[in-house]
Write a structure and sequence with these properties.
- The complex is a heterotrimer of chains A (149), B (161) and C (404).
- Chain A has three helices and seven strands, in the order αββαββββαβ.
- The termini of chain A are far apart.
- By secondary structure, chain A is α/β, with parallel strands linked by helices.
- Chain A has a five-stranded mixed sheet with strand order 1-2-5-4-3. A two-stranded parallel sheet of chain A has the order 6-7.
- With 161 residues, chain B is an alpha/beta fold.
- Chain B has one domain: Rossmann fold, CATH 3.40.50.
- A five-stranded parallel sheet of chain B has the order 2-1-3-4-5.
- By secondary structure, chain C is of the alpha+beta class.
- In chain C, 49% of the residues lie in helices and 14% in strands.
- Chain C has 15 helices and ten strands.
- In chain C, helix 2 packs antiparallel against helix 3 and helix 5 packs antiparallel against helix 6.
- Chain C is globular.
- The chains are: A alpha/beta (149), B alpha/beta (161), C alpha+beta (404).
């Protein structure tokens, strides 16, 4: 049994119906979709029970009504991406730094670039945008148009 | 007479300060390679100094990002007169590959006045030496002679001139 | 009383703009804060404006030193979205350039490390030897930096048979010189004194803070994308993952130098086993909708590109996470408790690939007051008290007392 299907079965056992979707496009890649309130629990499970202690990065994409957030983890050669959707009307997610201290800078990055509010982040300052950048303008949202010239 | 002495020393041994305004470092490593034993810009008396307060020439690379614009202006103001700025690389000229990106101003001359532009992505160390010597040649014709000598010896290859 | 000093964005020890705000207690670092963003050019948004071919050139200029790593990761990702099967020769040539780039980057780092330590001779020697690699790269690709060898579907230039013996000769020279550097790193007393025990990063902390690359491997964490998530021609190559249990700057140095030797071995194997055939596969311009996660081992660590396509010839989203961002929390941890003189080498030890001289700010913690300068008398008094507290006596005063 391959590592991917092994993990898929373990997740099914632990979370049953709550997991929306599991995709395995090829070896060493897995995409798991979960609803927003379940994210922290799943990450805790991945770290404690499956030993996924390495977070590679956090990606956020503007998909119209929502913002899609992907957490990418790595363990035993497999890269697992945890997907969830956050409504733009209320773009708030919980911080995962108590479980994964290595995620501290990635959360700051998505705060500034896409406008996600990370609750209880230990250090919610700007990361990459300049000091005189306007508040409320998020460059990686689709409605931000780059000025020509 | 004192003015002549100062002028002579400034041209004979210009001290440079290197500033990276947010580039990809390609040009920066070619600037440092120009100081290394293979290309050896130090034999012309050019010394790399850490601080702009001691420098005559500012070697600037990178497309100016909005974040570093004020610092770059401040560094330019800290240099004592007369001062020269050399913009190295396509990004420093016009933004290069990053033209149109939201955090990039597009060229160093949007923030500080530039005397010499050296194109390339990145320009070879020979091209950097060529540019620096051309700048010095404008101040002292002996440098133009030196440049011709280097070209004759094959140390600097210039195409299309 | 703590003193806060800003270092950067323009500083002789830093080749790229970054701002470190260091809070000092005497000479020891109590706290350190990093301000990024000077190098932020908005590349991820810029990638959405161009098409896939233009984005190869954009991503290879994310960093000049690891440009091949970025463009390889991007091309690999797009090829996976297209479902392309690459010819073996193309994969081998791509891997050869990646390994030559790793050699050039590590030798560059060795020189910069020597420079930060004040060991300029090492700086000059290693950059002179690096010219061997730059010549090889120019021979193969036409440029010393930013060699645009990648295209969607393979590589753009082939390696002819006349060039192969020259490459092998160059690699042989590099191996001899690198063995010399290994000796310097392990026996030269001044080098050892400044790198041993400096910038400690224990293994558990490296795992917790998700460090990558030689920074993590220098602390005993065995994670190398080439072995654990192979791509390009790595499944066909024979190499070891180098780790060191020293957990300090010396460990990271040794890991990098040994990696240069491994890369030389790999390059030799690639040239000797280079298969015949095409160098690229035909690729359509429009990419079907999908998403892909592409990983690579850049010289600095694990590099990841997440690409999402929407059926047109422009990507929907490109997310790039460079290895240095992953190493920043580790460098902050390893600097705390160290000395200010060690900041350049410890910061350089993660091999930062990123890119202001304020005045000193004085914070009087008890009174909450802030002054903008410290007068000479105050500074002298403060330093004497601090050193007395550390029981370090000024030898000059000792000698004077002896002769009184």
């Amino acid at each position: 049994m391959s590592v991917e299907s092994d993990i898929q079965n373990k997740l099914k056992e632990a979370f049953a119906e709550q997991i929306t979707e599991v995709k395995i496009p090829r070896e060493r890649r897995m995409f798991v979709q979960v609803p927003l309130p379940l994210v922290k629990q799943v990450i805790e499970y991945l770290k404690q029970d499956l030993g996924m202690s390495h977070i590679t990065t956090i990606t956020a994409i503007d998909v119209g009504e929502d913002i899609e957030v992907l957490y990418h983890f790595f363990c035993q050669g497999l890269t697992l991406s945890l997907r969830t959707f956050v409504p733009k009307a209320n773009p708030v997610i919980d911080t995962i730094t108590p479980i994964m201290p290595g995620a501290i800078l990635y959360e700051r990055e998505i705060q500034g670039l896409l406008g996600l509010k990370v609750k209880e982040h230990p250090d919610p300052r700007r990361l990459v945008l300049p000091e005189d950048w306007e508040e409320g303008v998020y460059p990686l949202r689709k409605d931000y148009k780059v000025k020509e010239g | 007479m004192f003015k002549n002495l100062v002028g002579w020393s400034r041209v004979k041994s210009p001290w440079v300060c290197h500033l990276n305004t947010g580039g990809c470092n390609g040009c920066d490593i070619e600037v440092v390679a120009a100081l290394m034993p293979r290309f050896e810009i130090e034999r012309f008396g050019i010394l790399l100094k850490g601080t702009p307060r001691h420098a005559d020439v500012l070697l600037c690379t990178g497309p100016i990002t909005k974040q570093i614009k004020n610092r770059a202006i401040r560094i330019y103001q800290q240099m004592p007169e007369p001062k020269f700025v050399i913009a190295i690389g396509s990004c420093a000229l016009s933004g290069g590959v990053f033209w149109g990106c939201y955090n990039v101003l597009g060229g160093i001359d949007k923030a500080i006045p530039v005397n010499v532009y050296i194109p390339g992505c990145p320009p070879r160390p020979d091209a950097i030496i060529h540019g620096v010597l051309k700048l010095l040649g404008a101040l002292d014709p002996r440098y133009t002679q030196l440049l011709e000598e280097l070209k004759g010896r094959g140390e600097i290859h210039v195409g299309g001139e | 009383m703590a003193v806060t000093i800003p270092i950067g964005p323009q500083h002789p020890a830093l080749k790229e703009p970054i701002n470190l705000t260091v809070t000092l207690d005497g000479e020891q670092i109590a706290d350190i804060d990093i301000r990024l963003g000077y190098n932020h050019r908005g590349i991820e948004k810029g990638a959405e404006l161009g098409n896939y071919i233009q984005d190869i050139y954009l991503t290879s200029r994310v960093c000049g030193i690891c440009s091949m790593a970025h463009s390889t990761t991007f091309s690999q990702g797009v090829e996976e979205l297209l479902g392309l099967e690459l010819p073996k020769r193309g994969l081998f040539i791509r891997t050869l350039i990646c390994e030559l780039e790793r050699i050039h980057s590590h030798l560059l780092w060795l020189g910069i490390a020597g420079h930060e330590l004040g060991f300029d001779t090492l700086f000059m020697y290693s950059w002179r030897d690096r010219e061997i690699v730059m010549d090889l790269l120019e021979l193969i690709s036409g440029n010393r930096v930013n060699y645009e060898m990648n295209t969607i579907g393979g590589v753009r230039r082939d390696i002819s048979d006349e060039v192969r013996p020259q490459i092998l000769q160059g690699i042989k020279q590099l191996e001899e010189r690198t063995k010399y550097y290994l000796e310097v790193a392990s026996t030269e007393v001044t080098f050892l004194r400044r790198t041993e025990g400096v910038g400690m990063l224990p293994k558990e902390k490296a795992i917790e803070l998700c460090a990558v690359g030689p920074t993590a491997r220098g602390s005993g964490v065995e994670y190398d994308v080439r072995k654990h998530d192979p791509f390009a021609a790595y499944p066909y190559l024979d190499f070891k993952v180098i780790t060191s249990d020293l957990c300090d700057v010396l460990g990271r140095t040794v890991v990098r130098v040994l990696e240069v030797l491994e890369s030389c071995k790999m390059c030799r194997q690639i040239i000797e086993e280079l298969p015949q055939g095409e160098i690229k596969a035909k690729a359509p311009r429009k990419v079907p909708p999908g998403e892909v996660l592409s990983k690579n081992e850049a010289p600095r660590g694990e590099l990841i590109h997440y690409i999402r396509s929407n059926g047109t010839d422009h990507p929907e989203r490109v997310k790039i996470r460079a290895p240095t961002l992953a190493n920043i929390p580790s460098v902050i941890h390893s600097l705390k408790g160290g000395y200010i003189a060690d900041i350049p080498i410890v910061f350089a030890a993660i091999d930062p690939c990123l890119a202001c001289m304020d005045r000193t700010i004085l914070l009087d913690i008890e009174n909450g007051k802030r002054k903008d300068t410290m007068r000479w008398e105050e500074l002298r008094k403060y330093s004497i008290t601090w050193y007395k507290g550390k029981e370090i006596r000024n030898p000059k005063y000792q000698i004077q007392n002896k002769f009184k």
